[in-house]
Inverse folding.
């Protein structure tokens, strides 16, 4: 059978259930119409031919009523319509039989009409319902006859005619119903055969190789096209083990076991005996009927992944090389830059005599520009060392308040210049940590510097230091312009900045990335919370607390960046040292 034939048969099989479902109401209507026609002919014959009395004629008319009701109920317009139709057949049979003399009368055989109608509707449930209603109709008719509610049976030719018609009608109804059921069964079988043929053709012509396996990997059946370098005959004879090198066969057994235990397994492996060919095997469990596997040639995909991996390694190597170059260049730039700043300091201090006013102004500008450039170079140098994996932490036991207090003292002058209040909230007792002193100071400096840059005049920047769940927590919050939600995810990566062009011009985008890098070098993390127009809070958590420092601490609020001293005055249990800027 070719693929075109299979496709046409598949289309027929797909449409067959719809055709059968559409044909059933039509066939049932014809059956009911045939019954109504037979009853009508018998009624005319008895009324005008044999001049039968009214009671037998009424019995025939009652027996035809369910056939007329089928016009609205046989297509089942609502749930339970067909059961209602069968119930009408049972009720009509009881009334007709009682009008013709009861169970022993000529129409007593009509009590089986619910079963005959059920054969027309089809289905095991309908047949069971029809049989139950037939038994019920027979019982009700017998009960009515026993109670004397049934009419006297007809006699003579009328009785003989009714008896003959009653038996003939039931035989016709049952025969026609069984014939319809047989036709439905034949159509169903043909549809299933055509569907199986179509599925078989689809399996044979699909581009991959589908295998039906046993638990050991032996091939029970194969469908589709095998990869070009796979010998299908050998695969069927020797199983999946023939495709894989002996050294990797334990991997194959593991995948088969995974499929049996967890319903799925996958393996990619080189084809044994053929260089450069890679195969992919996806295995699924068939719930006790073995395994089904899809075998594909993935050589192209494997080569592409290998190229991508090589490209990734090359990019990483170039990135490391770039970072090392920047680290070396930054180190070389610091030497002449320190000299420029030293000579500008000499000129500003007028160590060799007075200078004209303009030269003093230029010396200040040179010193400021050099300081700014030195800060940028230091940031680039630190980031380059971190990216090149050449930054070594100098871990020592220290009081975490000392580098944070030093940062507050250094940034106080800048805070006064921009008109921002700088406040520190540090513990009143020592907080010993095992960390890099310069890294903690640099974290505090970068966070405070960022906060001062983006806080308008009259705002507040708060630096707090706490111990939380065994970790050192350094937080810097401000009442500045805030950060847009779309920018939060980017911040913390090197050279990434937030805000408009005016705000981006205030830095290089390395401050927060250095904070994050220093925190991660200590095994910690950095988090940012911000809303536009409401301010920003940056928190750094590092698990560096010394064992003795992991206890609740009293907090000390240091107004205007106060520093801790060995013997501070005590005010209400808190140690407060007012900050005196050193200029």
């Amino acid at each position: 059978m070719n693929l075109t034939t299979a496709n046409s048969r598949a289309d027929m099989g797909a449409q067959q259930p719809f055709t059968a479902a559409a044909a059933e109401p039509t066939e049932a209507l014809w059956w009911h119409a045939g019954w109504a026609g037979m009853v009508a002919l018998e009624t005319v014959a008895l009324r005008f031919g044999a001049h039968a009395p009214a009671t037998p004629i009424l019995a025939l008319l009652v027996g035809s009523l369910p056939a007329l009701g089928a016009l609205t109920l046989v297509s089942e317009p609502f749930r339970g319509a067909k059961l209602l139709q069968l119930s009408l057949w049972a009720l009509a049979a009881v009334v007709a039989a009682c009008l013709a003399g009861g169970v022993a009368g000529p129409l007593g055989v009509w009590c089986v009409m619910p079963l005959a109608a059920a054969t027309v509707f089809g289905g095991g449930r309908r047949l069971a319902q029809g049989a139950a209603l037939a038994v019920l109709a027979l019982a009700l008719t017998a009960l009515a006859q026993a109670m004397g509610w049934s009419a006297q049976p007809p006699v003579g030719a009328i009785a003989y005619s009714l008896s003959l018609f009653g038996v003939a009608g039931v035989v016709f109804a049952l025969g026609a119903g069984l014939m319809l059921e047989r036709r439905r069964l034949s159509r169903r079988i043909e549809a299933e055969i055509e569907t199986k043929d179509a599925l078989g053709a689809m399996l044979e012509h699909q581009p991959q190789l589908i295998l039906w396996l046993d638990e050991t990997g032996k091939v029970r059946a194969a469908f589709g096209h095998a990869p070009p370098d796979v010998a299908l005959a050998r695969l069927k004879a020797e199983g999946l083990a023939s495709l894989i090198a002996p050294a990797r066969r334990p991997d194959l057994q593991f995948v088969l076991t995974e499929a049996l235990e967890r319903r799925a397994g996958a393996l990619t492996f080189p084809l044994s005996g053929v260089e450069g060919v890679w195969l992919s095997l996806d295995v699924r469990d068939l719930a006790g009927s073995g395994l089904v596997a899809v075998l594909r040639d993935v050589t192209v995909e494997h080569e592409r992944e290998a190229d991508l991996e090589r490209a990734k390694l090359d990019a990483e190597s170039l990135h490391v090389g770039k970072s090392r170059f920047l680290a070396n260049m930054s180190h070389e730039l610091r030497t002449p830059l320190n000299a420029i700043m030293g000579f500008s300091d000499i000129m500003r201090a007028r160590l060799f005599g007075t200078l004209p006013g303009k030269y003093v102004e230029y010396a200040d500008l040179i010193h400021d520009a050099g300081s700014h450039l030195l800060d940028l170079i230091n940031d680039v140098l630190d980031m380059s060392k971190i990216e090149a994996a050449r930054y070594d932490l100098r871990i020592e036991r220290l009081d975490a308040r000392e580098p944070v207090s030093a940062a507050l003292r250094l940034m106080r002058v800048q805070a006064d210049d921009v008109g921002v209040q700088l406040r520190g909230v540090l513990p009143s007792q020592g907080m010993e940590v095992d960390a890099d002193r310069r890294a903690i100071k640099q974290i505090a400096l970068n966070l405070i510097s960022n906060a001062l840059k983006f806080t308008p005049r009259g705002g507040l920047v708060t630096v707090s230091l706490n111990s939380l769940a065994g970790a050192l927590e350094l937080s810097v919050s401000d009442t500045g312009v805030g950060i847009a939600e779309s920018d939060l995810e980017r911040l913390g990566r090197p050279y990434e900045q937030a805000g408009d062009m005016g705000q981006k011009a205030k830095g290089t985008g390395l401050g927060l990335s250095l904070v994050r890098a220093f925190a991660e070098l200590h095994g910690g993390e950095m988090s940012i919370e911000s809303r536009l127009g409401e301010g920003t809070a940056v928190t750094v958590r590092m698990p560096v607390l010394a064992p003795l420092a992991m206890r609740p601490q009293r907090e000390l609020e240091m107004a205007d960046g106060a520093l801790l001293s060995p013997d501070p005055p005590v005010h209400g249990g808190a140690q407060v040292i007012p900050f005196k800027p050193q200029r």
User: Anything to note?
Assistant: The chain has 15 helices and 15 strands. The CA atoms of residues 209 and 225 lie 5 Å apart.
